[in-house]
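lol ok so funny story. i was supposed to be doing the assay writeup but got distracted and ended up predicting the structure for this chain instead. priorities right. anyway since i did it might as well share w the group, maybe its usefull for someone
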Amino acid sequence: MDDMTNDPMDRIAQALERMSPPPGDAPDFDEASAFLWHVDPDRLAPVQSVNGVALNLLIGIERARDTLHANTLQFANGFAANNALLWGSRGMGKSSLVKAVHGDIVRAGLPLKLVEVQREDLPSIGRLLNLLRASDHRFVLYCDDLSFSHDDQHYKSLKAVLDGGIEGRPENVIFYATSNRRHLMPRDMIENERGGAINPSEATEEKVSLSDRFGLWLGFHPCTQDEYLDMIRGYCAAHKVQINDALLCAEAIEWQQTRGGRSGRVAWQYFTDLAGRQGLKV
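and the output, tada:
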């Protein structure tokens, strides 16, 4: 009778465990330099090869490049450093810069780890911090294309990473985010909050102040035509693609006109097409 009575309870327990599996153990951080954070169950998946470009190929963003590299190098060496928000024009190398800086520092022999977190997984960030806090390694948490909509409450979870909570951010963790928005929320959201509040300045202070918690604001703006062409020339030199410069300029300008604008992403897309026509892999 006891076995028959316990069977339904066992099945319920097994079903609950399948619905909410226990968190995985911390990985061996020495097996990779980059990891992806997943939830349900919580785990860090190693990335054996990071998709990135060389730091010297990022043209037109030299000031942001040098500032972020210096900040990251300070952190990797165990010194004080700031969280960074990379904001501005689409396709101008914000996420590429984070990965390129990390790769450059790893190649210099410093054991810095990059952990990418998806925006929708921000509510789990506290559990991730507890996992990283116990490690001897140093980590750059990275969230690409970070922004918040009108009814989005995920921004509250982010404060624990930046400077909130009793424990605060672990000493061995820093946070980098990229966004098209300087204040991480749409302009009409700010105006709606102000218009419906008794005290308009207080209505938006909590959400706008989130971006203030980043010690570094690095702006990315549309590139000039000369910078756009120099990007392509840099890719050609790095991958040994041969083309007459006048032809390159004519094709590249036509390519950007069909895309409706210039950016580092458009430059790479043209170069990819050019390399493919020459029978090369990149």
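The first strand starts at residue 34 and ends at 38. The chain has a mean pLDDT of 84.
back to the writeup now i swear
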